[in-house]
Amino acid sequence: MNKNPTMQEIANELKLSRLTVSSVINGNASKRGISAKTITVVEDYLNKRGYVPSMQARNLRLGERSTLGILYTGHLYSHLTEAFNRVISIQNANKESVEIMIVQQIDLLKGIQELRGRGVTRLIWIQTERPENLFKDIDKVLNFLAPLDSVIFYNYQFGDNQWVELFQNEKIHLVGIDRLDGFKNMGRFLKKIGHEKVGITGSANDGLGEIVKNAYTSIGLEPKFTNTKTKADTLDLTGKKIAKDILTLIKNEGVTAASFVDDEVAGHAMVELMKCGIKVPEELTITGYDGMSYASALRVPLTTLSIPVEDMVDHVFKLLNQKRIKKNNYSHVFKTKVIKRESHSKPNK
Amino acid sequence: MNKNPTMQEIANELKLSRLTVSSVINGNASKRGISAKTITVVEDYLNKRGYVPSMQARNLRLGERSTLGILYTGHLYSHLTEAFNRVISIQNANKESVEIMIVQQIDLLKGIQELRGRGVTRLIWIQTERPENLFKDIDKVLNFLAPLDSVIFYNYQFGDNQWVELFQNEKIHLVGIDRLDGFKNMGRFLKKIGHEKVGITGSANDGLGEIVKNAYTSIGLEPKFTNTKTKADTLDLTGKKIAKDILTLIKNEGVTAASFVDDEVAGHAMVELMKCGIKVPEELTITGYDGMSYASALRVPLTTLSIPVEDMVDHVFKLLNQKRIKKNNYSHVFKTKVIKRESHSKPNK
What we know:
By secondary structure, chain A is of the alpha/beta class.
């Protein structure tokens, strides 16, 4: 007898009719007048054999269902792991059918097609890449999203408004924070305590750097970029490399603060800078981005920007049941908050 | 026309035969002598409409495939997030079909049944719970795992050997570390630098506490448990509560070291203890468990026990293709390593 017996094989083994076996498997046994004793015999056998009806069989039986899909592109990291955990746990509590796909950015379209093929009608799309790195095949992506009952793009990074109208037209919900606004928040805080020249990790020419530059210059700060090359490094090594470039910025440009886009990298850079004799925060203010839970236990408790993950994810589940009609608002912009700890102070002039 | 058109509807729309349309969809068009021009017309239309054949249709066409399943129970945390990311990225690179389910511990059996129903033949089961909390329905779980071509249980925590033989008999691979051995590692290190009385988070009566107790007493240390009640707290609050209990152990029991089972909690407790005036490491040695990448950037760089996640995950993919035969070795025990940083010193007597 094979590993996955057919109903006929089970019936033969138990000396019962195929109809009796299929009635138990399909949950119609009592309705069909099969005795409790026979039902128990069949059920015990199914459990002993580890029998599972195939998905095709169950789908044919259940007909069309509303299925939730979760599409995650890239790697789980920082606040997105928290969001993913929260999505999964709400979903588990809902006892609803769910299909999960995790694909590389380059396979975004394939991921959408696969989920559609599995019968997904409502989609939570958790996107790790910034929108400026997103779309080569945007038209095709939108075509394959159009037939779904609802689509929520989680972690949309507002700030450039290049794509917002496009998604509004396509009736795709965008849930995320406004990066420009977030960096302005942090910038205003730094300015208020007296900083002018602020070191920024990255380059003014990448998409994120441009936003930080716009945010900081718009409120009268002078951003100075580290231009650190950190491809494929660990976060520890990235932090160390950035620390060296910040030392240069302190010496050559007179920066009094360094603004990071990741809490862990901020932590590693902080350790390295302190090893090189820089006092934090007296000689250098350091700020993070993410609001990770370990940030308060770093070398110096990190002043950082928190992202309201719980509120955002809870909102996603409310949006899932909205109809895709034109007049809705599809942009859901959440506010960041500066968490003030001990890694900032007035500049030491 | 509905959102998910049938092949017949597409054919009507394009004024082509249903056979022509289905041939393009099924990839038989050139074989059937359909012109390149017509193929392009159909393909463009399918892309514009975002047409996806249903999974049932594709499965019927493709027949039986070998499908990898990933079953994750509970929440993604610490080194398991790293493992999950690595599994997904190897899987993505393999371009193989994969089914992912993430369920609560209580729905373990349902998760296995669902994956089986989806045609999964090889399973990576990433388990977040300790084995002593695992199994009410162990017999049933094993029955439903039996028909699979291979099953790898990732994060099996060796140390008690209650279940090892059972899994060996069931030909289920166990990949994990030996907790008893890990704590002995850490204990020997603490003893070597002169500690005798060591505070342990948790209780001697929970499964993990018992293992720590056995490990530490077997090498001549005296473990003293905090017995902290921390249900459903944040890691930050957990750390603070434990810190208070460790203060008591320092005062009443004379502990000179505190051994944690989680790096982040160790970090938060460390911050709180230092706030209460305890010098780390001079007055108290603190050790962690996990080897998280941020542990080197904590208040005092944390001496901890590292888990070889990369090696373990790479081994999982080798095991996936092994036949389930009795004579194989199904226990794959990986070694932990003490990472020596700055949170330990000789006791201050």
